[in-house]
Amino acid sequence: MSASDNHEKTPYDLKKTKRIKKMKQSSLIDQIVSLQNEDKINKRVLPGNYLECFPFPKFRLNKKKPFYIGRSKENDLVLASTDVSRKHALVKWNSEERAYIIYDLESANGIYVNAQQCQRRVLEDKDIILIGEHHISYFTIKELQEPKEMEGAETTIMKQRNKIVEKLYASLKGNLEVLDLGTVLQMIASEKKTGYIKIDSESRGYIQFENGYVVHCEVGEEKGEEAFFAIMEWKSGNFNFVKDVKPTERTMNDEVQYLLMEVAHREDEQQRGEMM
């Protein structure tokens, strides 16, 4: 048993109401993850235990190698969100229990498995792990899956997925206090969408996309990356995504994941400065 197993944590009650609202709004994302898993299982996939977090590809776990999850780039799964600690969680094979176990590495906001907060938990097939606002599915593939075994099923799955995706993007509007802007940006990037997000908060801001890349940001007279970082500081306000609109201007050409990691880095620097 690790030292973190006995570590007392402060209940995450202050954000509980917002978390419940966000979990309801993210149900469409969970459906997409489920269909992605089916789609990939229908292609040739090796037996084993997997983790998958939309919009990232799945990870096949290795019994000899611990799997780290957190905000810093040294982790195996990097979640560039402010509600994720630099080293948040660890998934590791336990030979005595013959199972993968997830550990909370004394994170600020804890980990949840199937909606229950835990510090150490044995993972079982189809468990859903919640870290910050990120849903991570844990699943087991027991036998080698060949494409010919599911002939015709892939088309059906893709049709289902496309319907859910269209429904998701039709509802990509709401309040920043309910749906985290970073999550929205990652969804747009994962689907390589073109269009723009309009955000009304302290001011009005725009983030424009082309094929999933951020190509222009604007707030007031500020443009480019600094405008993006200014928008990401907003914690309240409303947003709306308008798809299939070509960029009006090009001041940058960056991946969303890179930008979100830079946001997290800046926040770390600011916190260190305040502590000095």
Automatic annotation (TrEMBL):
InterPro entries: FHA_dom (IPR000253), PatA-like_N (IPR025497), SMAD_FHA_dom_sf (IPR008984). Residues 67-118 form the FHA domain. PROSITE patterns: FHA_DOMAIN. It comes from the Bacteria. This is PATAN domain GTPase-activating protein.
